[in-house]
From TrEMBL:
Pfam families on file: Cu-oxidase_3
PANTHER family: BILIRUBIN OXIDASE, CUPREDOXIN SUPERFAMILY PROTEIN
SUPFAM superfamilies for the chain: Cupredoxins (SSF49503)
Protein name per its UniProtKB record: Plastocyanin-like domain-containing protein
Phylogenetic lineage: Bacteria, Pseudomonadati, Pseudomonadota, Gammaproteobacteria, Chromatiales
Domain Plastocyanin-like: start-end pairs: 67-177
Membrane spanning residue stretches: none
InterPro entries, per database record: Cu-oxidase-like_N, Cu-oxidase_fam, Cupredoxin, TAT_signal
Top-level taxonomic group: Bacteria
Length: 344
């Protein structure tokens, strides 16, 4: 767990150089994985929507301010959709006619963009479709694409990075008859699990450090050294002896991930940004750029004790020479614990 003790360590190091710490993160990586990976992975709620008399499937979404406990007893100011940080998984089916009621309860303007959805430009939620505070925007469109994992996020002009960094993002699952017939793992939260991977840097008071200046550390994008998965720092997922499907989103600001399991086991990639692949692809490593999605299937076995880790050889962002520059230091992302598997 990320604890107050890490702040003391940071302060001790900084005082040796007569500098008060202004951010927190790198020192956490000096601890052992056993000390860091103690929080259970959170599974985002699913928003299935409801139908009106015309058969339109309606989703009610509210962008809001919140607080999240990432670091010990510190509360981090956040943004979220229907919650304090991130948003629910929106689940739709091919050919659905949908309406998204997007209420802006923030103290600032924003947008909500349906990333990867095939739709008319006027429904896209880009920078040209600003939602002022207190206003509800209700785009309607039909789902015209095959099964895929997409996402939605703020796309506010000059504020996209900051607002997404603070939590305005979530996943969209598109399902269809083809995917249902493939007998893929599909029990949500059990063997079909979303992984929104992000990296963040925190000030010593627990607030996010985000620098979008054109000349500062974040000029080429922010890279952090605290891994968040579904909004949980360095989480653990208890796994069972089964095939497990992970729908992975690189939700980071600038980092390109080169992911592998710590035992270098093989897994199958079954889908990419555009949906299911024509054939499954066996891999040991998976490379994801910011905003990119992939679906993989991995088999866990008795007593598995493995990590999904970043190899650190996929460059991105602005480097490693200042606050907010996590560089290639971010290694283990999430722990998979099979030591308490139920008997077959």
């Amino acid at each position: 767990m990320v604890t107050r003790r890490h702040f003391i360590k940071a302060a001790t190091t900084a005082l040796a150089g007569a500098i008060l710490p202004v951010y927190f993160g790198r020192q956490v990586l000096a601890d052992t994985p056993e000390e860091r990976f103690v929080r259970p992975l959170a599974i985002p709620p699913v928003l299935d929507g409801y139908s009106n008399s015309k058969g339109t499937v309606i989703f009610d979404l509210e962008m809001q301010h919140g607080e999240q406990n990432f670091i010990d007893d510190s509360l981090t100011p956040t943004m979220g959709i229907n919650g304090d940080y991130l948003g629910p998984v929106i689940r739709v089916s091919r050919d659905d006619h949908v309406r998204m009621n997007v209420r802006n309860s923030l103290r600032e303007a924003s947008t909500l963009h349906w990333h990867g959805v095939h739709l008319p430009a006027e429904m896209d939620g880009g920078p040209h479709q600003v939602i002022a505070p207190g206003i509800t925007w209700s785009p309607e469109f039909q789902i015209r694409q095959p099964a895929s994992t997409l996402w939605y996020h703020s796309h506010m002009l000059h504020q996209t990075g900051r607002q997404v960094y603070h939590g305005l993002a979530g996943l969209i699952y598109v399902e269809d008859e083809v995917s249902a017939a493939l007998q893929l793992p599909d029990t949500y939260g059990v063997d079909d699990i979303p992984l929104v991977i992000q990296d963040r840097v925190f000030h010593a008071d627990g607030s996010f450090l985000y620098d979008n200046s054109t000349m500062g550390p974040g000029a080429r994008g922010m890279m952090g050294d605290v891994a968040l998965v579904n909004g949980v720092p360095f989480p653990t997922l208890k796994v069972q002896r089964r095939r497990t499907r992970f729908r992975i989103l690189n939700g980071s600001n600038a980092r390109i991930y080169n992911l592998e399991f710590s035992d270098q086991r093989r897994f199958l990639q079954i889908a990419s940004d555009g949906g299911l692949l024509r054939r499954r692809v066996p891999l040991r490593r998976l490379r994801l750029a910011p905003g990119e999605r992939a679906e993989i299937v991995v088999v866990f076995d008795w007593d598995d004790d493995v990590y999904l880790r970043n190899l650190g050889d996929a460059p991105g962002g602005a480097g490693t020479d200042g606050p907010g520059m996590g560089g290639d230091e971010l290694a283990e992302i999430i722990h998979f614990d099979g030591t308490e598997m139920a008997g077959a």
